[in-house]
Amino acid sequence: MKRIAITGGAGNIATQLRGFMRSEVEHIRLIDIRPAADLASNESFFEGDLADAGAMHAALEGMDSVIHLGGLPREFDIAHMIPTNILGTYNVYEAARANGTNRVVFASSNHATGFYPRSQTITPLDVPRPDTRYGLSKCWGEMVAGFYYDKAGIRTLSIRIGNAGPYPNSERAAAIWISPRDLYQLVRIGLTHPDIAAAVVYGMSKNDAGWWKDELAERLGYRPQDFTRDHLKLEPVEESPVASFFQGGGFCDPEHDGTIRLRDENGLVLSGEATR
User: Fold this and answer.
1) Does domain 3-238 have CATH number 3.40.50.720?
2) Is 93 a catalytic residue?
């Protein structure tokens, strides 16, 4: 908790985290392609593109840890996803290895498992089922984290962030929402816990939905402070049959043919069922 870099440092989640970090961290370096606002005395800004390996090497010089939030935050075509979310994540880890930056907190996403049904409770140990190219890129990042621990000893906590909006505005959001202070608690665990190698946890506050069960987060000391229902502000939401069936919601819709296919934990067709 000394010198920490944040990619995507001008973004909303980084802005939330900075409010908690400033009093605990010696220096925060904010890395982004657009300027970060309202820099504190112990913050600096580094303009750099994740796709530029040299820029990432320079950005992480002298940093102890990096919180990797940068990248495209929603679905795009693969040509846009590759340089930022795929190559960009690789560049961050290569820069970390070269600079001796030995801790990473990786902002993964619930969309790494978005094609699980809402009726099913899953854990971080279940096989990923990404709902988008964006979700695929997060699966890639989790695998990169494991590779760089095995190769170089870089320790990573990958947090599959649920809904990090200001408040949960739908039933789906209520099932996966995480408050800023609960997210910071997980980030802090990722930066400091001695037993983390390449671990994956879900990022959620307390809720009664039961979509995710995460014994590892609890074992690492995560104790969420906020209960989703206390912050719920429902807004009108229309969901297609596909979106309402899967945990990924509307992310599952684009290019989907409308057939809901079921499979078991072995990847086999579940009871031969497919519904339209």
Assistant:
1) yes
2) no
